[in-house]
Amino acid sequence: QRAEHHPDNLLISSTHDTKRSGDVRARIGALTEPDLRDDWAAFARKYVPGAPDPGTGFLVLQTLLGAHPIEPLDRLDQFLEKALREAKLHTTWANPDTTYEDDVKRWARDLLSDEELRHNFDPLVARVTKAGERSAQGQLLLKLTAPGLPDVYGGDELPYLALVDPDNRRPVDFDARREALHDPPPKLRLITQALALRARKPETFARGTYEALDAGDGVCAYLRGDDVLVAIPVRPGAHPRLPQLPGEWRDVFADPTGLVLRERV
After folding, report:
1. Which DSSP letter does residue 48 get?
2. What angle do CA 173, 177, 195 make, to 5 degrees?
3. Among 83, 198, 237, 246, whose Cα sits 20 to 30 Å from the Cα of 32?
């Protein structure tokens, strides 16, 4: 439907106005995966009861996992103040309860200095980070190849753990990004390879068809036109079983998680 009716719509994952960047959302989404959800539930049951209220407790814990490491801590304070006021449950912009807001900020900061929490937090955030990176890469490949025009927000070329504005409007270190082009990490390598493919095959991406492929359970796979193939595992541990297609194909991008981007040569 998008290919037919909205071929030029913008495809985005982070903007100047998203409440959390795509990489942060991917980490938080990973908490629902089978390998993580029980440990996340146990972690939340242990620490949420100490929060000023349960909903805010979940918000803080998810933010700490999604945006770790979050320095300086003023970034966390700014996010919490805005999130709490916009929720309008205990404080608002029109009638701020600064005492409640300060209690939440203090609780969040105390969590980060709690040695027992760090003992439980560090192993969990390491696993969440790995799962989030896998999910974010899949979403990135989808954005770069699905019908529409992909947009890469300034700063999002590398791992980008931003919260709501003004956090997502911090100055971008473009020197670091230019330097990273010499030996690009996976995210930047996928962006450069996919955009180069789009430049080589403008008609395929501008007006080429979209055809879904059966590549096995837990895999989203499709053809763009007749010369670009995409496969994205959407479930942990799933690997594409791609059909044999006529012609000679080469990998533009592939990684151990099962992401595949191929072109007919």
Report:
1. G
2. 130
3. 83
**CB crowding 29-66: b at 16 or more within 10 Å, else e:** bbbebeebeeebeebbeebbeebbeeebbebbbbbbbb
- Cβ pair 228, 146 in contact under 8 A: no
Report pLDDT digits (tens) over 203-222: 999 988 999 999 999 999 99
Give per-residue pLDDT as tens, 158-207: 999 999 999 999 999 999 999 999 999 999 999 999 999 999 999 999 98
Show Cβ contacts of residue 26 under 8 Å, excluding neighbours closer than 6 positions. 132, 133, 135, 136, 139
Q: Check: CB of residue 64 under 8 Å from CB of residue 108.
A: yes
Phi then psi for residue 55, to 5 deg, are -60, -45
Residue 1: the pLDDT is: 87
> Is the whole model's pTM more than 0.85, yes or no?
yes
Neighbour count for residue 2 (Cβ, 10 Å)? 13
Residues pairing with 120 in the sheet: none
Conformation bin of residue 159: beta by default, left when phi > 0, alpha when psi is -120 to 50: beta
